[in-house]
Amino acid sequence: MRKTLIFSIVLIALVFYSCQESRKKSRDGILSEKQMVELLIDTHLVDAVLMSQNSSAADKQDKGLFYYPSVLEKNGITKARMDSSVAWYMRHPEAYARIYASVIKDLEARKAAIKTDLPDE
Question: Do 36 and 19 have their domain in common?
Fold first, then answer.
């Protein structure tokens, strides 16, 4: 009976260890949460610029083909790494929620700073 208990404990420990190892390996090449926050902030700022312009959808799409690669270049990542990171975070919604909470907080702070810098009308 004691051997069975020890075997069960060792087996459970190995299962937990292997799960942690696969979790670590699954993060290889994935942007950190901080990197994702910076990338998403820049992406949403480009979205805002494109949406604020009075131009056709085709013109916005053409401009997007210029701006979005610039965002990737600024952040030092490739489109493939961004796509892999987004896919990973989509499978881990708790982490994605933390990221977007930071993105929203940063964008709201920028908005508040702009409002305080504007002259009163």
Answer: no
